[in-house]
Specification:
The complex is a heterotrimer of chains A (281), B (256) and C (661). Chain A is mainly α and 281 residues long. Chain A contains nine helices and four strands. Chain A has one domain. Helices cover 49% and strands 4% of the residues of chain A. Chain A is globular, with a radius of gyration of 23 Å. The N and C termini of chain A lie far apart (61 Å). Chain C folds into three domains: 235 residues, FAD/NAD(P)-binding domain (3-Layer(bba) Sandwich), CATH 3.50.50; 139 residues, Succinate dehydrogenase/fumarate reductase flavoprotein, catalytic domain (Flavocytochrome C3, Chain A, domain 1, Alpha-Beta Complex); 152 residues, Fumarate reductase/succinate dehydrogenase flavoprotein-like, C-terminal domain (Methane Monooxygenase Hydroxylase, Chain G, domain 1). Chain C contains 20 helices and 20 strands. In chain C, the strands form five sheets. Chain C has a five-stranded parallel β-sheet. A four-stranded mixed β-sheet of chain C has the order 1-10-9-8. In chain C, helix 14 runs parallel beside helix 16. Chain C starts with a strand and ends with a helix. Classes of the chains: A mainly alpha (281), B alpha+beta (256), C alpha/beta (661). Chains in contact: A-B, B-C. Chains B and C meet through helix 1, helix 2 and helix 3 of B and helix 3, helix 4, helix 10, helix 14 and helix 16 of C. Chain C: Its cofactor is FAD. Chain C: InterPro entries: FAD-dep_OxRdtase_2_FAD-bd (IPR003953), FAD/NAD-bd_sf (IPR036188), Fum_R/Succ_DH_flav-like_C_sf (IPR037099), Fum_Rdtase/Succ_DH_flav-like_C (IPR015939), SdhA/FrdA/AprA (IPR030664), Succ_DH/fumarate_Rdtase_cat_sf (IPR027477).
Chain lengths: 281, 256, 661
Amino acid sequence: MATGTDPQAATPSEREAATSGVRSPSRAAIPARHLRTDRWWLAPAVTAAGLFAFIVYSTWRAFAGDNYYAEPYVSPFYSPCVAQNCVPMKDGANWEIFGAWWGLSPALLILIFPLGFRLTCYYYRKAYYRGFWASPPACAVAEPRANYTGETRFPLILQNIHRYFFYFAVIVAGILTYDTVLAFRDEHGRWGHMGLGTLVLLANIALIWAYTLSCHSCRHIVGGRLKHFSRHPVRYRLWGWVSSLNARHMQLAWASLISVAVADFYVFLLASGAFDDPRFF
Amino acid sequence: MSAYEAHFRVWRGDVDGGGLRDFRVEVNEGEVVLDIVHRLQATQAPDLAVRWNCKAGKCGSCSAEINGQPRLLCMTRMSVFSRDETITLTPLRAFPVVRDLVTDVSFNYTKAREVPSFVPPEGLGPGEYRMQQEDVGRSQEFRKCIECFLCQDTCHVLRDFEQNKEAFAGPRFLMRVSELDMHPLDAAGEAGIDRKRAAQDEHGLGYCNITKCCTEVCPEGIKITDNALIPLKERAVDRKYDPLVWLGNKIRRREG
Amino acid sequence: MTQVERQAWDVVVIGAGGAGLRAAIEAREAGMRCAVICKSLFGKAHTVMAEGGIAASMGNVNEGDNWQVHFRDTMRGGKFLNHWRMAELHAQEAPDRVWELETWGALFDRTPDGRISQRNFGGHEYPRLAHVGDRTGLELIRTLQQKIVSLQQEDHAETGDYEARLKVFQECTVTRIVKDAAGEKVAGVFGYERESGRFFAIEAPAVVLATGGIGKSFKVTSNSWEYTGDGHALALLAGAPLINMEFVQFHPTGMVWPPSVKGILVTESVRGDGGVLRNSEGKRFMFDYIPDVFKEKYAQSEDEGDRWYEDPDHNRRPPELLPRDEVARAINSEVKAGRGSPHGGVFLDVSTRMPAEVIKRRLPSMHHQFKELADVDITAEPMEVGPTCHYVMGGVDVDPDTAAASGVPGLFAAGEVAGGMHGSNRLGGNSLSDLLVFGRRAGLHAARYAQEAAASGTRPVPDDAQLDLAAAEALRPFSAEDGELPSAVSAGSAAEQPAGPAENPYTLHQELQQTMNDLVGIIRRAGEMEDALHRLAALRVRARRAGVEGHRQFNPGWHLAIDLRNMLLVSECVARAALERTESRGGHTRDDCPEMDREWRRVNLVCRLSDPSAGLAAPTDPGRGQIRLERRETPPIRPDLLNLFEKDELVKYLTDEELTQ
């Protein structure tokens, strides 16, 4: 094998796989799991590494519960902030829905929604099915298991609720937009100011919206579900617009993932005092 | 560029067994892999079995795997390989082998029959159909399909799990369901056929985990996953996973 | 006798292209059990290669169009050698056949008011071709395929068996039409499964030939391997005559580079949508090649030609859109005069005529084809093109209304394998409509014929002796190596044992293609065609020794060895008829007789097997010709149809005698 990485069949499942799939008796007798000569493992490996890095970073930041507000900036991980233990944010999306009994980081309450949106996203599904589950590892490379039910059963059948996470994602994006507007103040709450942090939040919210609106569910809702575009010219135009964004859904997914982490990290740097926000005016 | 000798490994055999055989064969400028297979037939292996037809990427007959990747033999130029590269040709590995590079693709014809056909609208005679270009555009993309079955071959649901073939129609035929569901004049609904629900209940749409290999191999460049399969999943969601509808059904069932 | 699997059906259709599938649908809808036999997989037939569109005078784009105009264009294109009745039926019925496809799910490109869009094409006065981008043939075959599946679903709902009344035997080759013991009526077919090599026989009172053309006898061709003239040969061997075999259409624009794709078609839509032909000097040379008969119909200046795309009512069309024979000859002359492109073609340019996005939208397959196969971006640079063997106008002599082959009860033919419809040259777009119109007619009348046979209790029974001979003939390539023939065959030809070593069928095929290409190609001369007949005779002798290795399971060498018989037969028809016709007309161009002769318009050349009794065993002396040629007067054109033309135009085609009648 060109890659030299073929593991010996070890687990019972893998032993079974050795006589099924491409190695079923009716198929052409070729012992190799695949005959690809290119670096097919590179794409899933990079994907897995990237996702893993984000998971490590976001877990740390989500559980940390501090250094997420540096007036006038709030980390996107902590907005809206809906617990009593939130740092007070001037005019911010800061509601005490959860009382003092909530002792954990307030990020955990709100991150479920963007997490659910991304977890059920058609692009991320592809990315982690390939990267983490090797299902499949790459095209025309055999899966290391003997059975597969896809998204037909619990829990993966829940992927079908992506649309409802999309609705929540729109709300969250709306709140983050509000946060970005608030970033046009100075540290004393006076309007008409801008700093590097404003730009960071602006870039982040632009990417968040682009990612959210390029979602396949959004494309379906705005027009994809129609049978006759010609009877709904406005929705047809919207659909065309979302479709062209949708073609870049993967790039937007990564760009917005990185921008969210960067925005959070920038706020962390400011809040922890490691860095001073350069003010433009 | 001048002629050179290339090293080929071609799978030869049948259902009882076989293996990769080595050939050294001449290659000339501008040739495609199918030309080399024909040269092998004419000079070294007259009984080498291969399917082909139009030799222009229009009929989808010469599907095989080149260096492990599902491709059309007639649309793979030799110039994409380096001269000292060994080129491995095998039959499609998702289907039963017949002989050499020829496989039994009858699975696909069986699945084709399971998709209910176009239902003509009542009250419209021949010549009375009126459809706008923007309304036929989506289905037209899917009708570019040349039925090479490379998507069926590469789809891990079929390729790696023989047992799923019964339940899963594969990308080609889910795309056919999509095509009909998006046809502006298809009257399936009026005839009591719910294509959206059937996509999941009868054609196994849930098995698809949208890993996009079908789109990657499509020689016609059809965006199978983004334009056919995901929209079909969303249409199934319309029917089945709207929580309000689901809750309503649940309550009514309890009462009943 | 040889053990063969036998089945009984009412109608057998050989070929699953447009004509075959349309015939099968009609026969099944007429209540008959119908079997379709095809060499490739179901849905892969050569019809998928048709790009431009289906000609039908629906008048969606220009209301001036009607069947009479279409009829006129067709007759002009065929230089009045067309069977007038076929041209009439074709023009009248084509719109219904297209509209019917929509009710089966076809999705053609649309006009702004939602009707089927129609495009311009060479030789058609108005925009007439219903199309889907440049993949109309694919749409046609897929629609018919899906209609067949839909009928099978109906049968399944009713009987529990998808194939109860309509079955496709894919990857099977028919090698013989089998008749009853008296040798009169069709009784079925004999063939083999390509996959397993097993023989089979299907008993059926009616057989429809829909096997397409003969292009694989030529080296540079747009045709696929299937086009070995099977139907033409089967008809001859069954005793039916072929007509007009000298007329072979060379499509003016095939790819010329790289060598491995030489001949692959470049659709006429490229010119219909604005593409122009230039020689190496950059000149639009077609203006120099407008023949007298077309002078009034075509633009005389580049400006006028360019204006026509925008305003077709007040300008004449550019000469790039002359009928195919004219354009092919012009390209040939330019290349011979040393004004060709680097690889021996001329330049076809759309890149300077349309924006890149428009090219990609209107000609997606061409863009893809050149990008993938020749590394040429047609939105930025011109294509190199040259003539390629594309279509045979000649074919089985049929009754225009019923598609019944003359002289053989129970045999029908439709599509490219049938002759007469297109005269000496076919217009682009008339092929797909021909398939539908006459495919339907063949299916309908075959079904009626089978019904009558069943009703009268005279269903013919295949003659066992013929089946045995057919099996022996098919097996011969396996015993050629050691010089022995199966007893059944050698008994009939004991005097002549093969001498010399076994021949490689691939080599024989290449030599045949080279011979036909060089000596009976686009421009013909008497001496060369005589030479070709000698070479064909020699090849025939060697073909008797064509031997193959291996076994019968999916053995392409064996398949080719069997197909060689058919290619040699039809090649001889082409060469003999071409030598006989001492004029130039449509797809037949003689260097030594360059003028069109009105007297020759009255003549159809009819090819028959010279020794029909030796039909089943090979002829005793393979060196002697197998084909006998007859002249037959063409039927007079009905007066009301003649009145559709101006007198001035008719005098160019008809003799004075015909005009005064």
